[in-house]
Amino acid sequence: MALTFAGLLYVQIMYMKNMVRMRDDQFVEGVQRSLYAVSTNLEQDETKHYLEQDAAQIQASALPIYSVGGSDFGGIKYTFTTPEGLSGDLTLKGEVGKGPKSNSLSSSYRSLQETLRGQYLYQKGLLNEVILNIINHASNRPIVERADSAIVARYLRSELYNNGLNLPFEFALVNRMGAVIYKSAGYSSAAASQEKTFLQPLFPNDSSGRTNYLKVYFPTKADYIFSSVKFMIPSFMFTLILLIVFLYTIIVAFRQKKLTEMKNDFINNMTHEFKTPISTISLAAQMLNDNSVRKSPKMLEHISTVINDETKRLRFQVEKVLQMSMFDRQKATLKLTDLDANTLLANIIHTFKIKVEKYGGHIGATLDAEKAMVNVDEMHFTNVIFNLLDNAVKYRREDVPLELTVATRDLSDGRLSITVADNGIGIRKEDLKKIFDKFFRVSTGNRHDVKGFGLGLAYVHKMVGELGGEISVESELNVGTKFTIVLPLIKE
Questions:
Q1: pTM greater than 0.85
Q2: How far apart are CA 96 and CA 69, in angstroms?
Q3: How far out from the chain centre does Cα 442 lie?
């Protein structure tokens, strides 16, 4: 599908590109043909101007009519053609019985031939004189007389229309130095420099020092060229719609694939998520079978507390899954109460201590905050801390004992800072921005013992935000990770 869309777009783009280039070439050819026709028309007008000056003299030297004798003479018709291609007829008539003698007729005929030959040579001389005048004196006339602006505009409009270019234009007459002699009302030198300008020399037979040029540009040329390919717009729109639908389909397909994988992970890993509290309760139950433990009221109290806390945690895990199922649907339901964060954290650490020590680690508390009263939901707040501690255990390093630290401190702006730090494997910089995304899991290389839904840190981020706080993370590979939660204190 991707290759098909890429090929379709490529074909459409190339087709439009070729259409635009072909239309532009046709436009340029039509304009150049029109400008050449304008230049030719102006030269013909100038030739006509000099011919009209000698028209009276040429008319005065027209062929005379010769007539001989009366109507009774049948007459002689003579047809002639000059070397230059001029042709004429001559008819001699006279009365029968009164016609001239043969020698007189021949003499008259020869005389008429000489007259015609002289008339032809005279007219040829007049034409040569006109041509010499054009060559020697035409360039001395002012250019505004030789190429009147109104006539140039009329010729331009007519020739462009004849070549199928019926669009607005602006023009100017400039000399060889580029100075404007006259211009149309809408002509702008700045616009002419930006637009493609067409240049046509006028009267090219003039000397180089007297050469003038006609400059023409078309302000709406781009629209004219675009109008030839605008029928492609619906095609592009349909292709774009198909492309959007295609991308949406791909996104939905990948989402469904991801959800399927998450469903499988959920089924495979759910037992692991619940194994920790169950194993802790099982361990406490086994300790109760020891006679020495049963004889120690203090130990019994500790074990009962652990069982109670782990049962709570088991309930929290179930609640977390239920809450995450409504993660994107509605705001979480919170039961806010005023609690001392130091006391709550101490209880959590006491409960989690058994799991940390099971892996040969140590968990310490530095609860230095003097003001620690916060308005939170006990269940969700406890679950947030449990998630952070549980991640620290999951992503511990095998080569060093696990060290966990939970600390609190006062901030100057009436807020409480809670940090959970470990000496685990750390998180890569490129993953730090994604760890709070739903279903994102940090790669652990070849380690397959780390299970989870990819929901824990998303849940933590969600709940801290619901409680009006902020959470941030600092980490370095093979050094450790520190999460910082900042919550507002209860105002006294």
A1: no
A2: 9
A3: 35
**How far apart are the C-alpha atoms of 390 and 435, rounded to whole Å?**
15
Residue closest to 197 by CA, chosen among 139, 180, 161, 143: 180
The yes-or-no verdict on residue 322 having pLDDT over 80 is: no
Mean pLDDT of 104-113: 68
**pLDDT tens digit sequence for 114-136:** 777 776 666 666 666 666 666 55
**Residue 314 in contact with residue 274, Cβ under 8 Å?**
yes
Q: Taking a C-beta distance cutoff of 8 angstroms, is the pair 453, 266 a contact? A: yes
C-alpha dihedral sign at 284, 287, 291, 297: negative
pLDDT at 469: 92
d(CA 487, CA 20): 63
Q: Other CB atoms closer than 10 Å to residue 277's CB: what's the count?
A: 22
The DSSP letter of residue 167 is S
> Around Cβ 305, how many Cβ atoms within 10 Å?
14
> How far does CA 378 lie from the centroid of its chain?
52
DSSP one-letter string for 219-269: TTHHHHHHHTTGGGHHHHHHHHHHHHHHHHHHHHHHHHHHHHHHHHHHHHH
Tell me the residue length of the chain.
492
